[in-house]
From TrEMBL:
It comes from the Eukaryota. Signal peptide: none annotated. SUPFAM superfamilies: Amidase signature (AS) enzymes (SSF75304). One of its GO terms (molecular function) is hydrolase activity. Keywords: Hydrolase. Residues 17-55 form the Amidase domain. This is Fatty acid amide hydrolase-like isoform X1. InterPro entries: Amidase, Amidase_dom, AS_sf. The keyword Cell cycle does not apply. Pfam families: Amidase. It comes from Gossypium australe.
């Protein structure tokens, strides 16, 4: 039963990505804030073919408007820092 719930949950997470991936459309996802529990919220933009530069400008502007500061998760492992 657990596997079945995992498949349904996974399908719900990617349902809006399938069309863009299938058609080969460029897409970008940017962080736009945090929910009540502190988890990040993202927004995805999908463009027409060869519109990557426009998508990058839109993503940069939206991210700058929505997030004034970033938060680290409570549990954070810096893989680049050697102990």
């Amino acid at each position: 039963m657990e596997v079945n719930h995992f498949i349904v949950f996974s399908a719900a997470l990617v349902r809006y990505q399938i069309a863009g991936n299938f058609l080969g459309l460029p897409a970008v996802t940017v962080p736009v804030g945090y929910d009540k529990e502190g988890l990040p919220i993202g927004l995805q933009f999908i463009g027409k073919p060869w519109s990557e530069p426009t998508l990058m400008h839109i993503a940069f502007a939206m991210q700058a408007l929505c997030i004034s500061h970033y938060r680290k998760p409570k549990v954070f492992y810096n893989l680049l820092h050697k102990n």
